[in-house]
Specification:
The complex is a heterodimer of chains A (314) and B (340).
Chain A: H1 16-24, H2 26-56, H3 73-80, H4 82-114, H5 120-132, H6 135-145, H7 152-159, H8 175-203, H9 207-215, H10 220-248, H11 252-257, H12 269-279, H13 283-291, H14 294-310
Helix pairs in contact in A: 2-13, 3-13, 4-8, 4-10, 5-8, 8-10, 9-10, 10-14, 12-13
Chain B: E1 4-13, E2 16-26, E3 31-35, H1 42-50, E4 57-62, E5 65-66, E6 77-80, H2 92-103, H3 107-120, H4 136-148, E7 154-158, H5 166-183, E8 186-191, H6 194-200, E9 203-208, E10 211-216, H7 218-223, H8 228-233, E11 240-244, E12 247-251, E13 256-260, E14 269-280, E15 284-292, E16 297-305, E17 317-322, E18 328-331, E19 337-338
Parallel strand pairs in B: 3-8, 3-9, 6-7, 7-8
Antiparallel strand pairs in B: 1-2, 1-4, 4-5, 9-10, 11-12, 12-18, 13-17, 14-15, 14-17, 15-16, 18-19
Classes of the chains: A mainly alpha (314), B alpha+beta (340).
Chain lengths: 314, 340
């Protein structure tokens, strides 16, 4: 016979019971769990953001402890500056071109990564590698690769007799090449994340859909453009939005690779804000430049949140 | 409509044989059911007929011609997947017209065919909906409409009813059958559900571990099972098997009477038993009895109609009586049916 479970007596009450009861209440537990995130957000996001807006409407500089509000004066001066106009154009152009390149290549790589073949772990590893390296480090590596004297690209081009040996290409010294270099590096470093996102998207499409389309008589291109791409579109959008945020706000690539040069030909909003506000000492104007990124990022954020909540689940 | 023939087809995945030398014919307009437990190779066999998998060996013929190496779209077959595989971004009408678009059919003719297929399945009012707005039964009809819209040679159906709830399944089974009879289409239907197989199939092919166990009409499969796998896989509860005289004696639970000891008139074979438990399921009673064996006790099940009187109760010593014509004998080693 199996008896009743052995009695453990009644003296199981101890000190911790009080705390347990407190944390069992949702009204206490909820705020306790949320507090670290809220403190973090307030200290590192809300305070700096508010500070930027305050500075942008003032005449603050790094040289003085006091400042006064000057209304839209700082903005007027900022907009009138031809370097700023170039920077805003560059930011948009660099972002658009690099993300077009990224989405095309990432789709191809997404197919490669989701395919089943021998040694796929190595391919996945190599594709993901740029993503694991901090931007500053990889930008330094590229700085060396694009050096006018020591560039391996120049050596290869010389060996292939594309350019005469002894007349190296100044990758970062010529406007068009410098722009190309910055765009290429932006695309190179945002590609892995986009490829992984698209791989995830591709693996989430049930394989029966492609098989059904095969049986329904569709060839490769029809299956690709009529079935796979439409199903991949929402996740492609997510990859593009991530890429836009990463490229639009980045200053490390320009700062390390070209310092905004030659002249100010590769200056972007983030780098120009830094040069003006921190190195130039004009906090107010640096903040005003930064504020111009806000509407674009806000728009992207709204799109992202809409995507996140409206994804179709079938 | 065409005949489908499978000749000694094999398929191995990394050393294991999913399909191990199966030969089978589905005749013109026949409804052939592939029945077996999960992992028996029935779906792999269907996918090879569809052209989604390449056989490791053997040959497949559709309409008398080998389709070896032909891609699915060259085989003129239609298939309905278990999940229905509706294109989620296309409306119902676009789903149904997709096979016709791939053929490059002119728009007028295409629209007419889509309407015809939709009317046939009673989904004409749903053409503008997206698949996610449909119920399970409606999705199944859309998948069927898409399958029949270009009048294929052969229909392949992979467990199309398993996503429907139990109540809907019986009516869907009836519709599937009527639909197939109207089109007189050669149909190969894969299922693990023996009730579906018995109800739908002109013939049933029972598979286990990649091998064909038996092919026959539902009657043959049920009453003249070729081996103990078929005997115990088909029927619910399964056939009772009892070792006696170096053989296995089998009988179906509904072909049994349970009576008080020595109240029967010597008709058929009698096994002394003890009643363990009686379950009343409404239309039937399941009577669980223990029968003595060389090694101990075996539990057998009798399925008795509740309309018949039962004069035993739990813990009674009783007799299990089976008419001789209901007895089947199987070899203990091979499991194959043997003579009386």
């Amino acid at each position: 016979m199996i008896g009743p479970p052995p009695s453990r007596g009644t003296q199981i009450v101890d000190e911790s019971v009080h705390v347990h009861h407190l944390l069992d209440r949702d009204r206490v537990l909820g705020p306790v769990l949320l507090a670290p995130l809220l403190i973090y957000l307030a200290a590192l996001v809300v305070v700096p953001l508010v500070t930027v807006f305050v500075y942008a409407f003032s005449d603050a500089t790094t040289g003085s402890e006091t400042f006064s509000f000057v209304g839209l004066e700082t903005f007027k001066r900022t907009i009138a500056d031809p370097v700023f106009q170039g920077a805003i154009r560059n930011t948009i152009v660099f972002t658009l071109i690099s993300q077009v390149i990224v989405i095309v290549l990432a789709t191809v790589l997404g197919f490669v990564m989701s395919a089943d073949f021998k040694g796929k772990w190595l391919v996945r590893f190599l594709i993901l590698l740029p993503w694991t390296t901090p931007v500053a480090l990889s930008a330094l590596a590229w700085l060396w690769m694009l050096d006018s004297l020591f560039s391996p690209f120049n050596w290869i081009l010389g060996q292939l007799h594309v350019v005469p040996i002894g007349t190296p290409v100044a990758w970062l010294g010529e406007t068009n090449l410098a722009v190309g270099s910055v765009v290429a590096l932006q695309a190179w470093r945002t590609l892995p994340l986009a490829a992984v996102i698209l791989m995830a998207g591709l693996t989430s499409i049930p394989p029966e859909l492609d098989e059904q389309a095969q049986i329904d008589g569709a060839g490769f291109w029809r299956r690709l453009f009529d079935i796979t791409f439409p199903l991949l579109a929402p996740i492609m959008m997510v990859a593009i939005l991530f890429g836009i945020v990463a490229t639009f706000t980045d200053m490390a690539v320009v700062y390390i690779l070209t310092h905004g040069g030659p002249g100010d030909a590769t200056q972007v909003l983030a780098s120009w804000s830094f040069y003006t506000g921190i190195q130039g000492g004009s906090l107010a104007q640096g903040a005003a430049i930064g504020v111009f990124m806000f509407p674009v990022l806000l728009g992207v954020c709204i799109l992202m949140l809409r995507r996140a909540s409206g994804v179709e689940v079938t | 409509m065409a005949e489908v023939e499978v000749r000694d087809v094999r398929k191995s995945f990394g050393g294991t044989n999913a399909v191990d030398g199966v030969s089978l014919v589905c005749h013109h307009g026949e409804y052939l059911v592939l029945l077996g437990p999960s992992g028996c190779g029935k779906t792999t066999l269907l996918r090879m007929i569809a052209g989604l998998e390449d056989p490791t060996g053997g040959d497949i013929l559709i309409g008398g011609k080998s389709v070896k190496g032909l891609p699915p779209r060259a085989r003129k077959i239609a298939m309905v997947f278990q999940s229905y595989a509706l294109y989620p971004h296309k409306r119902v009408g676009q789903n149904i017209s997709f096979p016709l678009e791939a053929q490059g059919m002119p728009k007028d003719e295409k629209d007419e065919r889509v309407r015809w297929a939709a009317e046939l399945l009673g989904i004409g009012h749903l053409l503008e909906r997206k698949p996610r707005q449909l119920s399970g039964g409606e999705r199944q009809r859309v998948a069927l409409a898409r399958a029949l819209v270009r009048e294929p040679q052969v229909f392949l159906l992979d467990e199309p009813l398993s996503n429907l709830d139990a109540k809907l399944r019986a009516s869907a089974r009836l519709e599937l059958k009527q639909f197939q009879q109207r089109l007189n289409a050669s149909t190969i239907y894969v299922t693990h559900d023996q009730v579906e197989a018995m109800g739908l199939g002109d013939r049933i092919a029972v598979l286990n571990k990649g091998r064909l166990q038996q092919v026959g009409t539902p009657d043959e499969i049920y009453h003249e099972s070729a081996n103990i796998f078929v005997a115990t896989f088909v029927g619910s509860p399964p056939m009772n098997l009892l070792p006696r005289d170096g053989r296995l004696v089998g009988f179906r639970p509904e072909n049994v009477r349970v009576v008080r000891r020595s109240e029967h008139q010597g008709l058929g074979r009698v096994f002394a038993c003890r009643v363990i438990r009686i379950e009343n399921l409404g239309s039937d009673r399941y009577v669980y009895v223990a029968v003595k064996n060389d090694t101990g006790e075996l539990t057998l099940i009798a399925k008795l109609a509740t309309s018949e009187p039962l004069d035993v109760s739990a813990e009674d010593e009783a007799d299990l009586v089976v008419e001789t014509r209901h007895l089947r004998f199987f070899d203990r080693e091979t499991g194959n049916r043997t003579a009386e």
